[in-house]
From TrEMBL:
It comes from Aneurinibacillus danicus. One of its GO terms (biological process) is negative regulation of purine nucleobase metabolic process. GO terms for molecular function: DNA binding. Residues 113-246 form the Phosphoribosyltransferase domain. This is Pur operon repressor. Homodimer. Belongs to the purine/pyrimidine phosphoribosyltransferase family. PurR subfamily. The gene is purR. Pfam families: Pribosyltran (PF00156), PuR_N (PF09182). Keywords: DNA-binding, Transcription, Transcription regulation. PANTHER family: HYPOXANTHINE/GUANINE PHOSPHORIBOSYLTRANSFERASE (PTHR43864), PUR OPERON REPRESSOR (PTHR43864:SF2). Residues 5-74 form the Bacterial purine repressor N-terminal domain.
Amino acid sequence: MKKLRRSARLVDMTQHLLARPHKLMPLTFFADQYGAAKSSISEDLSIIKELFESEGVGLLKTVAGAAGGVKYIPLTNHEEARTGLKRLCQTLESSSRLLPGGYLYMADLLGDPEALSEIGKIFATVFAEAEADYVMTVETKGIPLAYATAHYLNVPVVIVRRYSKVTDGSVVSINYVSGSSKRIQTMSLARRSLPENSKVLIIDDFMKAGGTVRGMIDLLEEFKAEVVGVGVFMETANIEERLVDEYVSLLRVTEVDMRDKEIRLELGNYFKENE
């Protein structure tokens, strides 16, 4: 039990909440932690709640009842998300990022903690009400995005492999059709990594026709899991046939000109739907 002045208590309580998003924290926890009355804790939480909302940090949701408490829900407001992603667009439109075959170099971005945190919080905002039990992605480039999102949702990450490993134990494997190349490929998931009937949020870095995401959806059927959302960081525009109907994209590639070394991006369908 800590005996702290109110200012120090507010800082410590804020740290507890930020470190445990989407977790219900009973008022008795804080009361016992600081040796304070519940009424004092309630007043402190009102101050933190007002600060979170005014600064755009997120919401502090109160749950009534004997088993109730408070829950921090990280949220990024729409304009802040738009501004941040437009800034990323400018970075990614550099001609130096174009690779042979029309691919876009993003490894540095997917290794930048600040950028990942920003993207992960946006995805967590989009799917805040999905009540996902797990975040799923396929190796390898989607892994940082999945972990960034899972951090703000406070749920585990499940990684689908292209090739199974002996350390995975028993696995479930399926064949799927790559949407762009039309090639038959394989993906697998360890049986122990995902309980049946779980609610799963799929996060991926890039989507063309959606073959990989479609494969993950089909794989989840083998686990009797429910897909509660699909989020992709970037999608390609002007695809004749998309294998996934419902998904949220943050950015969209609208033009790739290999001859003139030009690439054009715009905000994804998340912003189109919310305009």
